[in-house]
Design brief:
InterPro entries: Ig-like_fold, Ig_E-set, IPT_dom, NFAT, p53-like_TF_DNA-bd_sf, RHD_dimer, RHD_DNA_bind_dom, RHD_DNA_bind_dom_sf. Its main location: cytoplasm. The chain is α+β, with helices and mostly antiparallel strands. The chain has helices spanning about 15-35, 65-70, 125-130, 135-140, 180-185, 210, 305-330, 350-355, 370-375, 375-385, 540-545, 590-595, 700-705, 705-715; strands spanning about 115-120, 145-150, 420-425, 425-430, 440, 460-465, 470-480, 490-495, 505-510, 515-520, 530, 535-540, 560-570, 575-580, 585, 595-600, 605, 615-620, 625-630, 640-645, 655-660, 670-680, 690-695. The strands form five sheets. An eight-stranded mixed beta sheet has the order 16-18-21-20-19-22-23-17, with no helix packed on it. Strands 7, 9, 10, 13, 14 and 15 form a six-stranded antiparallel beta sheet that branches. Helix 1 runs antiparallel to helix 7 (about 305-330). The structure holds a DNA duplex.
DNA sequence: CTGGAGGAGACATCCAGAACC
DNA sequence: GTGGTTCTGGATGTCTCCTCC
């Protein structure tokens, strides 16, 4: 697809830098739009806008409206076929990981001053790659480029003191891999301190990455370290998710102990067990242990417009500060900060997989065991059994999983980057979608099993177009399912399922705060993987919300997607990264039982005159279910709301027929997006679904295939 | 407009039965 | 057959949020 956007950047810089800058700009410019959803209630994720272009609703290779609206770094890539129905823009991945030379991935106008000049770490510059052969590619990858980060008014900064590198606001701000919020801004090259290849023992903070890791950090070095009186004693703090026996109550990072991380009342639910099963006693915290809020300073906020807005501001400012911090700090991860001290017996420390900034020993940014031992003896001294023992064998598996080329590389896209599901000959597709409901389990519970497919069995993912003999690694993580850009879900983690019934080998790695499941894609299996090894773990809201820099709210944020990624090394040294995300999965217990869920709609768009019958497929429809069409302004207030006529006779629990109501304005000149939802009563509403009203003169053909319109429009 | 009371809903945990080893 | 573990569905106490007055 030929992108029509213009890249208005003077200097020549890599995609990594470009993406970083763009991501930064996106954050700086589009957070308002992104947090538009903040003005809606928990179910209102969809900004209501009038579309200038019809948009495909589910094409994984199409840029979504959000990409456009948010000045996303996302760009469209060569067209590919849409497979399967995807109501929720499931694959936001309409992006190309590689930015075509000279193109800016969005049309976002540059912001006004102040400016910060960034020396960006060059990743895989498309232009350079194309100009260079494989041999000099490695060298060129290191080329710096200066780009300019333009920031909004400095007045917008919440706390100038946060500019200090030592006061990084985000727990993720040092984790380059998982979040482009940070990684995009990394200044790897300007100083030895900031080199991605630096010794992990060098840090402007004066603490090494090892020291900043919970393993090594003592109470003196980590303000979040558990107090000596903590019930946590003896538990192995691993990757910020220390062991937690079933039924026990881990410490809150705020050291509120049995009071729980949810300030004030001590959080939700019953929290009556200590580490050894005895009731907790509130232990006083050392003053230097936790800068987290006092018990009265619960970070939990209600999902009201006001709070959302406040949250949006925080998000914005946090992102800005994180970006600025990234300019002044290295990429050393301080995993200890702001991360709940808890874990579970099933959680294995994969901290070494966090060590993504491997030595530039050529292209082999290898993390395999040999290299681990040879190159990181000191690290292994601490984590010997961790990553290198992370390949957990599934005995019944007939084939050895010869570890494919390493993928944990600084050059790989962060987890919140939007990637295409297809590129060139390759296409990553979810052949069998997961069920729309899967009850996630808490750390205090036993596993609730693997995610299942809606049609029985388990989800199936296949990579098409790959003809090599070398196996690849399929990565899986839990992503968000709201209408913002797909990103790792803060409140859910993928959980590795083992057992005899599990046929698929897998192992876990941690990338920043996100757990990834790595699954082999074998040519002998046609690069097809049955995902029967992936469950979903729910993290306590109070724990996550207490994390530094965490701005998402856990309450009613219970929908996730399975996000699959694969990275394909090319002969020319490039890596093609593909991503496919599943349909949304509702993970809460109650919602699964009570809330209506719309999985499919037979019509995505129709002329403003309405009148057509639309079939909705889903769950928990009732004879009394109502379907409401709503239109909201960008500031969140209602412009229009009407109840659609439901054919009561046709209502089944999994299907419902509704008549598309007449739009309020019959003279629209361009498609208008509205939302509708199914309502089973007070506060029992489905997620918003999108619907486009078309101008009366749009012909039938176009009307019936908006996706194709999108393709052509973007092409 | 503000604040309190009451109810509804969400969260986190517990319990128990089934299935499996 | 027995005991342990895991999976699964349901129940429930506590807390938060919303609505009403």
């Amino acid at each position: 697809m030929q992108d029509t956007f213009c890249l208005s950047v003077n200097s020549k810089f890599s995609f990594g830098a470009a993406a970083g800058k763009e991501r930064g700009l996106q954050l700086l410019t589009s957070l308002a739009a992104e947090m538009k959803s903040a003005e809606e209630d928990a179910y209102s994720y969809t900004p209501n806008v009038s579309l200038s272009l019809p948009l495909g609703m589910g094409n994984p290779c199409l840029a979504t409206q959000y990409h456009t609206l948010q000045s996303s770094p996302v760009i469209s890539v060569s067209s590919c076929h849409q497979t399967g129905y995807n109501l929720q823009n499931d694959n936001h991945a309409a992006s190309g990981y590689y930015l075509p030379h000279g193109l800016r991935p969005n049309g976002a106008p540059a912001l006004e001053s102040p400016r910060i000049e960034i020396t960006a770490y060059s990743q895989y510059p498309e232009d350079e790659v194309e100009e260079s052969n494989t041999d000099d590619h490695v060298i060129k990858r290191g080329v710096n480029s200066i780009v300019t980060l333009t920031l909004p008014n400095a007045d917008g900064y919440r706390d100038p003191s946060c500019l200090s590198p030592a006061s990084s606001i985000s727990s993720r701000s040092c984790n380059s891999e998982a979040s482009s919020y940070e990684s995009s801004f990394y200044n790897y090259d300007n100083s030895p301190q900031n080199s991605p290849w630096q010794s992990p023992c060098v840090s402007p903070r004066g603490s090494s990455s090892l020291l900043s890791c919970p393993h090594a950090s003592g109470p003196a070095t980590s303000p979040h370290h558990s107090p000596s009186t903590s019930p946590q004693i003896g538990a192995v703090a691993e990757e910020g998710w220390p062991a937690q026996p079933r039924g026990s109550r881990p410490n809150s990072p705020s050291c509120s102990g049995g009071g729980g991380g949810n300030g004030g009342g001590g959080g939700m639910g019953k929290r009556k067990y200590s580490f050894n099963g005895a009731p907790y006693r509130q232990t006083s915290c050392s003053p230097n242990q936790s800068p987290t809020p006092s018990p009265h300073g619960s970070p939990r906020v209600s999902v009201t417009d006001e709070n959302w807005l406040a949250n949006a501001n925080q998000y914005t400012n946090s992102a800005i500060v994180a970006a600025i911090n990234a300019l002044t700090t290295d990429g050393v991860v301080d995993m200890g900060e702001g991360i709940p001290i808890k874990t579970r017996k099933t959680m294995i420390d994969h901290s070494s997989s966090m060590s993504l900034k491997v030595e530039p020993g050529g292209e082999d940014l290898c993390l395999d065991e040999e290299l681990c031992h040879e190159d990181y003896p000191s690290r292994l001294a601490l984590k010997k059994e961790n990553y290198c023992g992370g390949f957990l064998d599934v005995p019944q598996h007939p084939y050895p999983w010869s570890k494919p080329k390493p993928y944990l590389s600084p050059s790989l896209p962060a987890l919140d980057w939007q990637l295409p599901s297809c590129s060139g000959p390759y296409s990553l597709q979810i052949e069998l979608q997961p069920k729309s409901h899967h009850r996630a389990h808490y750390e205090t519970e036993g596993s609730r099993g693997a995610v299942k497919a809606s049609s029985g069995g388990h989800p199936v993912v296949q990579l098409y177009g790959y003809m090599e003999s070398e196996p690849l690694t399929l990565q899986l993580f839990i992503g968000t399912a709201d209408d913002r850009l797909l990103r790792p879900h803060a409140f859910y983690q993928v959980h590795r399922i083992t057992g005899k019934t599990v046929s698929t080998a897998s192992h876990e790695v941690m990338q920043s705060n996100t757990k990834l499941l790595e699954i082999p894609l074998q040519p002998e299996n046609n690069m097809r993987a049955i995902i029967d090894c992936a469950g979903i773990l729910k993290l306590r809201n109070s724990d996550i919300e207490l994390r530094k820099g965490e701005t998402d709210i856990g309450r009613k944020n219970t929908r996730v997607r399975l996000v699959f990624r694969v990275h394909i090394n090319q002969p020319n040294g490039r890596t093609v990264s593909l991503q496919a995300s599943s349909n949304p999965i509702e993970c809460s217990q109650r919602s699964a039982q009570e809330l209506p869920l719309v999985e499919k709609q037979s019509v995505d768009s129709y002329p403003a005159s309405g009148g057509k019958m639309m079939l909705l497929s889903g769950l928990n429809f009732l004879p009394d279910s109502k379907v409401m069409f709503v239109e909201k302004a960008q500031d969140g207030h209602h412009l229009w709301e009407t109840e659609a006529k439901v054919d009561k006779d046709s209502v089944k629990s999994n299907s419902l027929v509704v008549e598309i109501p007449r739009y309020r304005n019959q003279r629209i000149s361009s498609p208008v997006q509205v939302n509708f939802y199914v309502c089973n009563g007070k506060r029992k509403r489905s997620q918003y679904q999108r619907f486009n009203y078309l101008p009366p003169n749009v012909n039938e053909i176009i009307r019936n295939d908006l996706s194709n319109i999108s393709v052509h429009t973007h092409a």
